[in-house]
Design brief:
heterodimer, A: mainly beta, six-stranded mixed β-sheet, four-stranded antiparallel β-sheet, about 50% strand, B: mainly beta
Chain lengths: ~120, ~110
């Protein structure tokens, strides 16, 4: 079974500083990778996703992530954060080749709480 | 835009009560999912459904059941609520295989069982 590890449970940063949220996954076969954001008292919103092609993926709100197959990582970055980026971020993986009752299932990491301070 | 709605944002129930959580999506998605979210544990899959009247157990199905009588509606049922089921419950939907597995989430229901 796949697993996802988000290496930091909490990341505090100052406004306008760069940030990187780290994500590693267990599978070495083909994967789809996702980053979701959850603002307080809301559901999850898709930030970006990697399905194939370019390993650098750009998402909404100025975020980007880089797929590194050799290191099985999909770290999320933003060059300059805003107060409004304060939220919990989830990395997720699915197996595009999974069959039967496993298809379409996402495995989520434990989440990283990003807190942006003024 | 895909819209996934959940019947309640906050719910308080007593131990032993039967609890229904409803989820409706308006984009004709085949797949629907129920997760629970607990601090430090991320999202854990309870049940999912890839067609009307079809259901599959996820990673933590114990104490829960589901119903999908119509394509747009997926219900989560707690037959006899217990305090350890106090949690945030999230519903999601997605297109079938071949569409990239992106899931779209509802706003969540925060359930407290006293």
């Amino acid at each position: 079974a796949q697993s996802v590890t988000q290496l930091d449970s909490q990341v505090p940063v100052f406004e306008e500083a760069p940030v990187e949220l780290r994500c590693n996954y267990s599978s070495s076969v083909s994967v789809y990778l996702f980053w979701y954001v959850q603002y307080p008292n809301q559901g999850l919103q898709l930030l970006l996703k990697y399905l194939s092609g370019s390993t650098l993926v750009k998402g909404i709100n100025g975020f980007e992530a880089e797929f590194n197959k050799s290191q099985t990582s999909f770290h999320l970055r933003k060059p300059s954060v805003h107060i409004s980026d304060t939220a919990e971020y989830f990395c997720a993986v699915s197996d595009p080749n999974a069959g039967g009752t496993s298809y379409g299932k996402l495995t989520f990491g434990q989440g990283t709480i990003l807190t942006v301070h003024p | 835009d895909v819209k996934v709605t959940q019947s309640s944002r906050y719910l308080v129930k007593r131990t032993g009560e039967k609890v229904f959580l409803e989820c409706v999506q308006d984009m004709d998605h085949e797949n629907m999912f129920w997760y629970r979210q607990d601090p430090g544990l991320g999202l854990r899959l309870i049940y999912f459904s890839y067609d009307v009247k079809m259901k599959e157990k996820g990673d933590i199905p114990e104490g829960y059941s589901v119903s999908r009588e119509k394509k747009e509606r997926f219900s989560l049922i707690l037959e006899s609520a217990s305090t350890n089921q106090t949690s945030m419950y999230l519903c999601a939907s997605s297109l079938p295989r071949g569409s990239g597995d992106t899931q779209y989430f509802g706003p969540g229901t925060r359930l407290t069982v006293l």
